[in-house]
Amino acid sequence: MILLTGAATPIIENNQTSMLPYFAGRTLSRMTIAYGLSLAFALAYGIFTAMNHRASHVMLPLLDIFQSVPVLGFLPVVFLLVLNRLPGTPGQELASIIMIFTAMAWAPTFGVIAGVNAIPADIKEASRAYGVRGFKYLRQIVLPAVYPELIWSSILAWGGGWYLIPIEEYIPGTVNLPGLGSYIAIAGRKPDLASALFGLIILVGIIFAIDQLVWRPLGRRAEKYKYETVAAPATETQRSIVGEGMRRYEGRLISPVTSFLKSEKSYFNRVVEITRLRRLLHARERLRFPERITRIPLWGKLAS
Q1: Taking the C-alpha atoms of 245, 249, 251 and 254 in order, what is their torsion angle to the nearest 10 degrees?
Q2: Mapping DSSP to helix (H, G, I), strand (E, B) and coil, where does residue 176 land?
Q3: Which residue, among 44, 105, 47, 53, has the nearest Cα to 74 in the 3D structure?
């Protein structure tokens, strides 16, 4: 109890601890705005890239290049450009949202591309045959197809955004925005290990709550939109009939084969024995060949 009280003392004495609910709300608002921008970018860029074969030769490698750049590589460029044009708190907020966007955008975009490419060819042919085109095709075919991939890739996107919040909310001498990230970063710089761990626990709790309340239900709903190959009932009936017939005539089909193998086993053994005897006789003939040579008069004189 004394240890717990001693560990909690720095947390209680920290004047920012009482502001943690407000900090959590500010952090969630930035994450949500950045995710909305990432979602719009992913749908627009991903659908256009996947449905335009010629453009995909340029846009897909370009996306892969930007995705390969480390997130912190965008940090100096974003903050320098934004803060020079828009100084103060509005510029810091905009720069932090852009930084979170750079951590979130790539996974959903690749997910959208994968979802569009996963649409079966027969679905595409049927939509063309029935005249489903334009926005109707986008709403009825494309968006349901990308929904499962978009959910799973969005979980990865939020994970990348959570990783970045201590950096984009607090840069000494440049950025100091209210949020969980700045609370953890300032506590770690003091150093106030207890407050930093407490802020980290709050952050983990929020992530767990979002996973249970948002991503789990959406993931279960996404299972309904997956394209799966299901065997036709007639095929299953045909398999059952064939299986029943095979079981019924199993004795009639296998018994003659078994009897044949049993009867031929002795014959096979006799063939093997004859083959061995022939090899032995041939070897003996080869060994007796010099003896026969010496019995011939001419070769006998030469040999002697």
Answers
A1: -90
A2: strand
A3: 105
69's enclosing H/E stretch is none
- Percent of the chain's residues with pLDDT above 90: 29
The answer to whether the bond into 191 is cis (omega within 30° of 0) is yes
Annotated domain spans of the chain: 2-229, 235-303
CA 113/CA 92 separation, integer angstroms: 32
Nearest one of 227, 63, 34, 228 to 146, comparing CA atoms: 227
Q: Which CATH superfamily, name and number, covers 2-229? A: MetI-like (1.10.3720.10)
Cα separation, 58 vs 55, in Å, equals 6
How many other C-beta atoms are found inside a 10 Å radius of the C-beta of residue 174? 11
Q: pTM (2 decimals)?
A: 0.69
3-state class percentages of the chain: helix first, strand second, coil last, to nearest 5:
85, 0, 10
Residue 28 to residue 206: CA distance in whole angstroms: 9
Please give the structure tokens belonging to residue 98.
């852009």
For residues 59-76, one letter each, b for 16 or more C-beta atoms within 10 angstroms of the residue's C-beta and e for the rest, the string is bbeebeeeeeeebeebbe
Buried b (16+ CB within 10 A) or exposed e, 27-50: beebbebbbebbbebbbebbbebb
66-116 residue pLDDT tens: 888 888 888 888 888 888 888 888 888 998 999 999 999 999 999 999 999
